[in-house]
């Protein structure tokens, strides 16, 4: 049901706007390195590879070199690493972009994503190929990215930063994310939330908010 107090909508990216499959990346690195996927996952978790890259602790070159180091594969090319890393990014349905354009005529729209610079470059390529829109910044008033902010969801600080920088009030803001912990953290700050769960998409969740 539509909340008439809402003036602002914040969207997560993965599995909210863009379809993703996170385990595909570890499988891609497993195939590259000749290891089992379970071993790759263990290595990534032990080294907090996602957290380090997605909070800006490493730049792109540092990330690629770290991948070579932890996989003990010095000959792995930048292109091969980027391709494997980006393999979790799937498709971006054009109808979701049309919904964003519609909502943008009535609400202030923002993006808040735990992500890396390599992923964002590829997402923009997928976006343009599927919809003709060149970059995410063309759809949102502000694009908030964890690697640029130095903090990631569900840390309450990231939501506080978004509210402060955008100059918006929590109780006038709706946040959509597929991760339960991220949703809960935002809700505790007074933000209205929608937990996006497949197979339901934002088209159904936001039908009352669209024109």
From TrEMBL:
<keyword id="KW-0378">Hydrolase</keyword>
<dbReference type="InterPro" id="IPR036412">
    <property type="entry name" value="HAD-like_sf"/>
</dbReference>
<dbReference type="Pfam" id="PF00702">
    <property type="entry name" value="Hydrolase"/>
</dbReference>
<dbReference type="InterPro" id="IPR023198">
    <property type="entry name" value="PGP-like_dom2"/>
</dbReference>
<protein>
    <submittedName>
        <fullName>Alpha-D-glucose 1-phosphate phosphatase YihX</fullName>
        <ecNumber>3.1.3.10</ecNumber>
    </submittedName>
</protein>
<dbReference type="InterPro" id="IPR023214">
    <property type="entry name" value="HAD_sf"/>
</dbReference>
<dbReference type="GO" id="GO:0008877">
    <property type="term" value="F:glucose-1-phosphatase activity"/>
</dbReference>
<dbReference type="InterPro" id="IPR006439">
    <property type="entry name" value="HAD-SF_hydro_IA"/>
</dbReference>
């Amino acid at each position: 049901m539509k909340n008439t107090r809402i003036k602002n909508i914040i969207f997560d990216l993965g599995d909210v706007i863009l379809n993703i499959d996170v385990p595909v990346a570890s499988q891609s690195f497993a195939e590259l390195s000749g290891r089992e996927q379970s071993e790759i996952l263990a290595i990534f978790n032990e080294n907090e590879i996602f957290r380090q890259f997605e909070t800006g602790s490493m730049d792109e070159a540092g990330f690629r070199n770290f991948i070579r180091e932890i996989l003990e594969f010095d000959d792995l090319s930048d292109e091969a690493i980027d391709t494997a890393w980006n393999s979790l990014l799937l498709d971006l349905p054009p109808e979701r972009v049309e919904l964003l354009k519609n909502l943008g005529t009535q609400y202030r729209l923002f993006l808040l994503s735990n992500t890396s610079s390599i992923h964002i470059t590829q997402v923009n390529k997928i976006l343009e190929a599927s919809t003709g829109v060149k970059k995410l910044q063309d759809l949102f008033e502000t694009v908030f990215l964890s690697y640029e902010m130095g903090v990631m969801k569900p840390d309450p600080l990231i939501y506080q930063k978004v509210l402060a920088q955008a100059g918006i009030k929590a109780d006038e803001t709706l946040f959509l994310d597929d991760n339960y912990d991220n949703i809960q953290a935002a809700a505790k700050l007074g933000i209205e939330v929608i937990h996006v769960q497949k197979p339901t998409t934002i088209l159904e969740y936001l039908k009352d908010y669209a024109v």
